[in-house]
Amino acid sequence: MNYMEDFQMLQIEENSNTVLLMPLVGKMIGDYPKDFLEKISQEKEEAYGK
Question: What is the pTM of this model?
Answer without folding.
Answer: 0.45
